Each structure stands twice: as C-alpha cells, then as structure tokens.
Amino acid sequence: MIKRIFLLLFFVLVISQFLRPDKNQGSYDSIATFEAAAEAPVEVKTILQSNCYDCHSNTTRYPWFMEVSPITHWMSYQIDEGKEHFNVSEWDSYTDKQKDHKLEEFIEMIEKKEMPLKPYTWIHGELSGQDAETLVNWAKVVRSGIGKTEETPQTKEGDSLPIKESDTTAIEEVTAEE
Length: 178
Ligand code: HEC
What we know:
This protein is 60% helix and 0% strand. The chain has helices at residues 2-16, 29-37, 42-51, 53-56, 71-85, 96-111, 118-124, 129-145, 165-177. The chain starts with a helix and ends with a helix. Pfam families: Haem_bd. This is Cytochrome C.
C-alpha cells in the first residue's frame, strides 16, 4: 500500500514538472521608474533586489530550483498574492494616499519580520538587522516627501478636485467667444 502511495506521489511530481505556471518576467523599466520616483540609493536597490522584488514587482529572477515543481507552483502563487498587495512596478499608478499606506505597511512588515516571506528566506537568507534598518529609514524619508515634490495635482479616479468659481467662468468665457 505505502509503496503504491509513493509511486503515485512520484508520478504526480513528474507530471507536475510539465505543468509550468506562467513566468513573471516583465521588463526592468517599471522597477527603474519606481526606484527613480522613490529616490532609492544604491544600497536600498540592492537589498530590495535580493529580498523583495521577486514577489513585489513584474520581474522575478528564476534560478534553476525555481523551475522545479512544487517550488515553482508555490512561488507563482506567492508572486500573484504579493503583487496584489504591493507591486513596485505599478508604483506610478498608486495615488499619494496609497503610496503612503503601502510604505506604512512596508515598514511594519519589516519591523515585525513578516517579510521577506518565510520559506523564501530558507533559500535566500533572512534580512540582516542592518539591511532592515536601512530599508525602514529610507521608507520613512520617502513617506515624509510624498505629495511634496509633485508639481501637477493628482487627477486619478476618486480624487475629486474642488472646482473654483473662477474656473467655470473662464470656461464659459471661452465657449462664449466661439
Ligand atoms: C516569496 C514572496 C515574497 C517575498 C520575497 C516578499 N514578500 Fe511581501 N508579500 C508576499 C505576499 C504573498 C504578501 C501578501 C500576503 C501577506 O500579507 O502575507 C505580501 C505582502 C507584503 C506587503 C503588503 C502587506 C499588506 O498588509 O498589504 C508589503 C508592504 C510587503 N509584502 C513588503 C515586502 C518587503 C519589503 C519584502 C522584502 C524585504 C517582501 N515583502 C518580500 C510575498 C513576498
């Protein structure tokens, strides 16, 4: 009986090697956009690259063991989940309020040692205390600067800008001239 179960498991494992999930391999440009917008220094970029981007950007690195089932299926699921909560490749599309909130969670996740996600660190190693501090300090600086460097006001859906009376009269004047 036990022998049969093992045989079956082995068979499933072999078959699953052929059922490959889609890879998360977008261009690095979106990450570069985030890094520029958030003014990430080189050391911060390096730490994020080796600990976070695999699950929180559109670009995952795929060393050979990441191609092996069931690791590849587990990773694929975590990448989907991770990106849904926080995706640096979509940084530009977040409103200021969202950016601030993501960074607040970013700090919390690191301080509580919840990120990087557990089994991932078995292979990639834990975040060192010093690296954690570097990330948290940087995130605090980015948070304090949000909204201050933007020149154009955000006009994303859901952000209603108050319309001044002078604006509407100006529009009326223009249309009246035609
Ligand atoms: C192996 C994949 C993986 C890695 C690596 C990883 N994360 Fe995550 N992360 C997730 C998943 C999955 C979630 C969503 C579920 C959860 O909150 O546990 C998440 C959620 C988050 C969130 C949002 C939390 C919330 O409440 O919405 C932040 C912020 C975050 N991670 C930051 C980081 C940082 C910073 C790193 C690197 C130091 C990192 N993550 C590394 C998988 C990962």
